[in-house]
Amino acid sequence: MGVSISYVKAWRAKEHAMELVKGSPEESYTVLPSYFAVLEAKNPGTITTIETDENNCFLYYFMSLGPCIRGFRSAIRPVIAVDGMFLKGKYFGTLFVATCMDDNKQIYSLAFGVGDSDNDASWNWFLTKLRGAIGEIDDLVFVSDRHEKHSKGSFNCFFPMPIMVHAYFI
């Protein structure tokens, strides 16, 4: 074609095209409450929560689908694996997940959350919401990745006498 443009110009054009197709992160955050309202209306028992700070800026969100909660309480063994992953993008943050394993050895999603960072406050908030979603479970076991935040007893604050299993996954 004989066109020569700089890397920066090509990158900006790609970013602009992606924003036209997907929308901006700011727009996504503004539609999150209405998305959660529809999610709760279409999936009975679904629990969603959004928290903002005093300036109405996003801090945390939690989501656990009603069918997943009912399935966990009725058919899944009481073992929950929890982990957090760093989010990359304009606003960063941490994605928190709570998963289980069903009888077919398939991953069973229980809850998701997003926090501002991987710190004690975010983990405490996520675990509080998780406890509210699943209630009290006898002989509940957690599997984590031996991160220091998990070994400070953060689970003991929210769940009565859980057994903590530290495991490395390779």
Write the layout of secondary structure elements.
Layout: H1 7-22, H2 25-42, E1 47-52, E2 58-64, H3 66-75, E3 79-86, E4 94-101, E5 107-115, H4 120-134, E6 141-144, H5 148-151, E7 163-166
Describe the fold and architecture.
Helix content is 37%, strand content 27%. With 170 residues, the protein is of the alpha/beta class. The protein has one domain: 2-Layer Sandwich (Nucleotidyltransferase, domain 5), CATH 3.30.420. The protein has a 7-stranded mixed sheet, with helices on both faces. A hairpin with a 5-residue loop joins strand 1 (47-52) and strand 2. The model is unreliable at 166-170 (pLDDT under 50).
For the structure shown, list the relevant keywords.
single chain, 170 residues, Nucleotidyltransferase, domain 5, 5 helices
Question: Could you provide a short overview of the structure?
Answer:
It is built from five helices and seven strands; from the N terminus they run ααββαβββαβαβ.
How are the strands ordered across the major sheet?
A: 1-2-5-4-3-6-7
Our count of domains comes out at: 1
- Oligomeric state of the chains in view: single chain
User: What share of the residues lie within helices?
Assistant: 25-40%
CATH class: Alpha Beta
Largest pleated sheet: 7 strands, mixed
Number of helices: 5
CATH topology: Nucleotidyltransferase, domain 5
The CATH architecture is: 2-Layer Sandwich
DSSP, total strands: 7
From N to C, what is the helix and strand string? HHEEHEEEHEHE
- Poorly predicted regions are 166-170
Estimated radius of gyration: 19 Å
Strand content: 25-35%
